Every structure is written in C-alpha cells, then in structure tokens.
Amino acid sequence: MSNLSTKRLTKELAELQKKPPGGVTLESADNLSQWVVKVEGAKDTLYQNEVFWLRFTFPSNYPLESPEVVFVRNIPIHPHIYSNGHICLSILYDHWSPALTISSVCLSILSMLSSCTNKERPPDDSRYVAHAAKSPKQTNWAFHDDTV
Amino acid sequence: MMDDRELSEASDAPHSPDRSGIAARALTQDEPDAGSLWNVLSASSTTESGVRFSIDLDDLFSTSDKYDYVDEEKISQHLICHVCHNPMLSPVKTSCGHTFCKGCITRTISLSGKCPVDRTRLGTPQPSEESPAQSFDLHPADRIISNMLDELRVRCPFRENGCVFETQRQFIKSHVRSECEYLAKKCPNRGCERLVIQRDWDEHLRSCEWRQVECDECKETFTWGEFQNHSSTCPAENIVCPHCETQLLRRLLVEHTSTLCPRFPIGCLHSSFGCMWLGERLLLSDHLPSCPYEAIKGFLEKQRIVNDRITRENESLKRQVAGLTVEVTGLRQQLGVVSNVQNRSEWAPRNALPENNMESGEMSPVGLSAWMEDGLFSQDEGFYGPPQSHPQLPLGGVPYPPHDHMVPPLLLQEFAIENERLSSELTAMRAQLETTELRNNVAIMNESVKVRDEIHGLRALCHQLQAQILLLLDVPRKGVGGSSGAGGPGVGSATARTDALDGLAAASNFVAAISGARGSRGARIPGMSSSAPPSPQSSNNGSTANSNHTNVLKL
Fold first, then answer.
1. Active-site residue A88, yes or no?
2. By the CB < 8 Å criterion, does A121 face chain B?
3. pLDDT band at residue B470, thresholds of 50, 70 and 90?
4. Beta bridge partner(s), residue A40
5. Is B2-202 a CATH 3.90.650.10 domain?
6. Which of A14, B147, B261, B477 is the residue whose CA sits 20 to 30 A from B549?
7. Top enzyme class of this protein (chain A) (predicted)?
8. A67 vs chain B: nearest CA distance in angstroms?
9. Do B85 and A64 touch (CB under 8 A)?
10. Which residues of chain A have pLDDT under 50?
C-alpha cells in the first residue's frame, strides 16, 4: 500500500462510516486492502427488501487503479451479474477513474440493480462462470448495454 | 509568479506534524556534523523520501497530505483534489478545465490518459520523462485557486517538539527554515545520543556531559564526565604532601614518600631481623644507635647469606628428587607390563625357579618381579642395586649383569615375548596330548565292547551245550534201560559242564566224544540226522566241531 492509497482509503473509510449514502453500509474493513459493504435493494425496484454484499479489494496504487469489486454470499439475479459474483460494469474496469470513490461505485451498482426490468442471469452465464478467472479484472469485458 | 514558487517549493522539505517524528528519527541516524540545522533537516528528508517514496511515487513533495491543516473538514470541496482527496498542492488545470494536484493528475494520465472526472483524453499516451506536464497539456491553475490554497492555515510540523506555530501554508516553509526553534538535532558530542531542539542547543552544548574539556594542568582532553574524576587524580596537579606539607606535583608524591619525606613513617632498617621500631624517617638516625639489632648486624647479615644459600640448594635438590620420582614411576610401569604378561602364561611357581633358570635360561615372572620389587626399590640397596636375598637370580643366563643400574627395557621386552611364545606352544601341545588320549580311549573302548559281545555269545553257547549234553545223557539212560546206571551219566554231565566253561575246543571235543559214543550205540536224535553220523577224523578237528555247534544252535 503506497502512502497515497493509504491516505485516501483512510479518508474514504472515515467518510463511509460517518455519512454513508442511502442503502449502503460498511460491513467490515479488517484491513485497508479489503472491505465488505452491504447494499440494500432500493424501494420500488425488483430488488426491494433484498440485501447483497460487495467485496472491495484495493490494489496498492489505488485510486489510480480500480478496486476489484464482486458480489459475495448472496448474488443478485441480474443480466449483468454473473452467478460467481462478477459484475459487468464499465466503471470497474476500463472506465475507472481516480475521481470515483467507494461510495460512488456502490451507488452505481445500486442504480444498475434498480434499472433492471427482468430478473435473469446473463445469457452466457454458465460458460463464463466455467472459464472465468478468479478476479473479474482479468476478464476482457465487452460493454454493450448503455442503458445502465 | 506564485505558481512558480509553489511548484518549486514542492520539492522542498515537508511540513506536516507527522514529519517531526520522522525527522527526529532520521536525525538520530544521521552522523552529526558542523552543518546548520536546516542542512540536517533536508538531509533527513532526502533519506526518508528515498526509503518510503521511491517505489510508488517519484516525488514525495507532490502530495499535500503531509501538511497538518487546521480545520481540514471545513476546507471547500472545490479545493480538494479528486484523486488524493487532499487540498491541492501545486494545482494544475487540464484542457477540459478540471484542477488537480500536479502529481496526482500526472500519474493518472500516465496510466489512463484521461481526465479522472470527465474522461476527456489528455496529452499523449506516452509522455516524455522530462516534462510530463507539457506533454499532457497541463497549465498552472487559476491564480485565485492557488491563492486560496496558499492561504489555508497549517500547523508547524514540529508540534510534537513543542512548537505551536500556525500560519498560512505558503509561509510554513520559511518558518521552519528560519524561525522554528523546535527542530531537533542530535548532539554532536561523541557519546551523547540526545536529540536537542534548536532552542536548547547552545545551552546543551555548554552543559553536555560529553563535551570535550582540556585539563589546565596536564593538557589532556576529556569528556566533562571523565574530567570530574580526573580532577582528583591529575598527575600534573600541585599538591601538598600529607606528611611533611611540602608542595609538589602529584606524580612525584610516591617517590617523595618512599625516599625523601622526613615525616613519612618507616620501619627500622633491621625490621627484617625482628626490630619492631616504627617512626618518622627523621627519627631513624636517633633510633639506630639504641637498636639491639644494630650491634649484631654483621652476624645477622652473614646468617642471612648462609640461609639464602641453603634455601637455594634445597630448592635445586627438591627439583632433582621430583625428576627422579618421575623416572622411577616410568620404570615401575614398564615392570608392571612385563609381570602381567608372564603371570598370564601360568608359569612355574617361585620355588621352581632355580631349575627353570638352569634349564631354559629364562626367569620365572614371579621370581623376576619379586626380585625387582625386593631389590630395585629397597632402601638398603639403593634404587637399582641387585638384591642380596636372591643372589642366584642374575645367574643362569639372565642377560643383564648384577651391577647394572638399569634393567635394559629391551631385554625385559624380549623376555615377555619369549615367554608368550613358549606358553602358547605349551598350550598347543597340551591340547594335542589331550586329543591323542581321547582317540586311544575310544579305540580301546570299541575293541573291548566287541570282545565282550563275543564272550557273551560264547557263554550262551556253553549253556546250550550243557543243556544238550544233559539231554543226551538222559536219552540213552531212558531209552536203553533204567538199569544202565544213573551214577555214570551224572558224573559225566558234571565234567562236561566244567569243561565247556573252560574253552571252546574242550567243549567241541566233548560233543564229538559224546556223539561218537552215541553213534556207536546206533541211537539218533531227531533233527540231527545230517550231522549225526560222526566220523573219528572230524571229531578231532576244531573247525568241523564249530560247524556242528552252529547246527546245534539252530535247534
């Protein structure tokens, strides 16, 4: 962990504990490099009353490089979320920006869930899960759905 | 101008409070030199940047998180860098209009080539090393932004050392450089490990326990702590003799008291002979005329010389005795070896010694060792004299002369070897003898068994013959008539029994005679028809008689 990432993660951690965005709660942050965040499905969406957990793993040059974000424990059924927890979301990979924060990533994922109209697995789910690397950051993603 | 200054200052020393502890640690490691406080501080900063920031960030001073901002949470979000989330340091503006720390945006673009906020592509993907800012098309931020950042209030980084100074960010460097009295530096005195803040510096140097001082008297240099002890031992200091109150240098005191000082208490010149007088040196001349030892000092002196000589002699004699003792011990060990060898071979006892000596020319081990022990070590004979109790022993071929002082160890060894050989020969012969004896015994036993069997067979034969004879004698008596006289055959039977016991030939003759008598009478025994017809020739032949016996046995 570089000094820059340590400093920034410390700030973000304090921020997330002090005033977390709606529907987002910090579950655990045993060390600065891996956190678990609880997100609750927004009201009046398909995921209302459902609770999910996101695991953030931070690289040493965070925020210049994106964190690894996957669903754990309870994987939501969503066209962009594979059953192994991997999320097909551009800001987590190619479109990551150092200006993004943990809060903003959580809100983006919540918004992605909220905009879902049909609860189903991605069409290539079983094929992807069978061959996917451990970290979704090693996947070569193709982003085609601009509606979320 | 402001921007330029800010950019250049970014490469200067850091100023946030957590710097002070690090600086102090680094100072502890640094070898103190004659440099100014500021030099020492920058040296420590360089060290730290080299250790902690050389991997991830090239330039330690491009981040602003080292500053200790006053009321940091109240700082406007507009002044916070989107990348590091700290108040911007050396702010620069992108072509898309966003402002970041210069270091943050440079690194971001190097990685992604885009603005972190709106993802506008910025600069060339692979910027030149020398001036990344130019290749990324970055410009110093607007003056108003720079000014607002410069006016943020920060605390002195040496707050831990006691500095409570607060000022605008732009002035904190000059404060540390020229005003702050709480920079810490290690004391330059060898041995002193203390970190001293600038304010206490001069006073510490004046009072440091480890500062160097020079003794005014002997011109040697010491640390102050050592000097405290030195002042009571300096050899060049002028002191007063405690006895005669003469003034002199300390290093001369010992010489003075031992030879000159008239008041120093000394003993009489004859104290070694027993005079108990003790007094000041100047009174000695008064004492001597009355000293009882003075009158006989010539005699005492002579006695002393004689005594010394005798003592020396005694010493040398003691040494000689010790050497001789060692020699004797060695010889005793050699003898022990020889005795052991000979005892093991079970030689003749001591009283058989003379004969052995005469015959074999060798000596019994018992006798030898006894002679050695009796003779060699008896006080009367001297250490190596020949024994009187065994005058015959050295004779009879013993190969060393009686008046030799040493028994040659080589001869003793030969003895031992010869002895060993003979005893082993003896053992072998004894074994052979035993084997032969055993073999003979077995052969005799076999023979006697055979003979005994034969005798048994013959005895059985005789019994049968006797029975037959009795039978034969009975048959004619019954067959011919009861009147033919019972007395005759009874006597014949008794005679035949006696003869049969005497020998084979007699028995056969007897049978032949009986048969002849019976044949002549024309009587026959059933089953004996083949051999029954007797002939006078065969009756006298032993072998024929034997065959007859065989047939009889078949009955």
1. yes
2. no
3. very high
4. A51
5. no
6. B477
7. transferase
8. 14
9. no
10. none
